[in-house]
Amino acid sequence: MPQQRDAVFPAGPQTLYERNHYSPAIRAHGLLFVSGQVGSRKDGSPEPHVPTQVRLAFAHLNAVLHAAGCTFQDVIDVTVFVVDPQQHLQAVWDVVLQHWGEAPYPALTGVGATWLSGFHFEIKVIAKIPETAANR
């Protein structure tokens, strides 16, 4: 019998998830698949200041990880999307490194994008759910 999957929702406003009909994360087979997190304000609109937008994206990401009993140290794979990386990558990366943690670092794929619904940065991850959190 296949293992069931279940959605993970952080505490707080769910504006983007409700508006766009998706789950913040899916827990399945001991892994957590987190949807792309962006630097949205409480109303779902983009934060215009890029470094602040990246900080908010990490705050949203960390809230989803926490809701599943994980931390960023449990993340094994990261994909980041950056609009106009030639202009924004340094500002984005300066903030990313503040949240990255200690080695060994997760695998990383970076994608330059032309449009992210008004956002300049998006991060999606896969995390290994710790044994202590697996039974939540």
Automatic annotation (TrEMBL):
The protein's matches in CDD domains, at most eight in alphabetical order, are given as: YjgH_like
Q: What are the recorded GO MF terms, alphabetically?
A: deaminase activity
The species this protein belongs to is Oryzisolibacter propanilivorax
Gene Ontology CC terms, in alphabetical order: cytosol
Annotated protein name in UniProt = Enamine deaminase RidA, house cleaning of reactive enamine intermediates, YjgF/YER057c/UK114 family
Among Pfam families, the record links this protein to: Ribonuc_L-PSP (PF01042)
